[in-house]
Write a structure and sequence with these properties.
59% helix; four-stranded parallel sheet; Arc Repressor Mutant, subunit A; alpha/beta; Rossmann fold; elongated; 10 helices
Amino acid sequence: MREGIQAVLQKEPQFDIVGVAGDGLEAVEMIKSLKPDIVILDYAMPNLDGFGVTKEIRKQCKDTKIIIYSMFSDVELVVSLLKEGISGYVLKGQPISEMVMAVNAVAKGGIFYSEVIGRNLQEYLAEEKSGGKEDDVLENLSDREKEIFVLLADGLTVKEIADQLYISSKTVETHKYNIMDKLNVKSIAEFTKIAVKKKLIEINRV
């Protein structure tokens, strides 16, 4: 893999390969010594993985830009690496020309992600933004409404909630529709989705 990337990058006159490492620990030592402009890190390196190498680089070589090369598309992993300061994330299995595009983009001060990674990040950020709004809306519910919201999301019927809270079914129905109006949702399934996201109920209950 290293030889393949090296062969492709060497064909580009704007690139100068200054070193190739065989594992994470060797990579850290070479980077500290050579201080390259850009580093391409395989995430699954022996001895020290891409996350560990990234953290070490950030301590001593803050100007070195990092591109992660990985088979993993998990958005949580990408976000954690972004917080450590990576500038690119390229998925294995993509045409090797994508790595050339990534290095060119990063060299110009940009950020590059494989298409799948970019899409996953957009969805993640949209969910985070939506989650923040849900938090605000939930704060607008009364204590009784919050109680009924969780019970409805957890799968209890209106009658079961009425019996449990010692109130009438009509009162539960009224609260239910008030909650739906405040949260701008139209079904109990949406209740459940919000409650799971906010860890108000356990996933294995739904």
